[in-house]
Design goal:
Blueprint lengths: L5 H12 L4 E4 L5 E5 L4 H10 L7 E9 L7 E9 L4 E9 L5 E3 L8 H12 L2 E3 L40
Parallel strand pairs: 2-5, 6-7
Antiparallel strand pairs: 1-2, 3-4, 4-5
Length: 167
Amino acid sequence: MGKISNQAVLQKLNSRFAENIALPTEPYGLLTFETTKEEIFDVLSFLKEDSELRFNFLTDITAVHYPEADLPIVVVYHLHSFVNNVRVRIKVALDGVNPVIPSATQLWEGANWMERETYDFFGVQFQGHPNLVRILNVDDMTAFPMRKEFPLEDPNRVDKKDFYFGR
């Protein structure tokens, strides 16, 4: 089977999800679009199970923190269709106070550790995850270290005082 085009993938998605697929772009040839937390599980299921698209491989789940945005936590999915040799990136923006999104572990068992890592570093709660606990940081850690909520430098460091730099 030959490679399916990004436009063909987008057309199938739009015919099924219409207004729930937003801001499609193709940076470096990678079809990228946004959807909602209410639709993400159905979008992932469709991409995996559609007989033509067959996005059978979950490459990655991660997140990005945009502290100035209205919805500051963005969960990012990368899928690959080995059959069609095409990839997609899906973004879902979430509330920073209570970032909750459905788990993809029912579709791909490999989502388990990816979601645990995303929870561990960004605090994203994956509903339906079989064991959502920290995977890399200590269990009693109270912060999520990849969020941009902390000062970059220790303000008490003597060698960083402005008067040392003529400021």
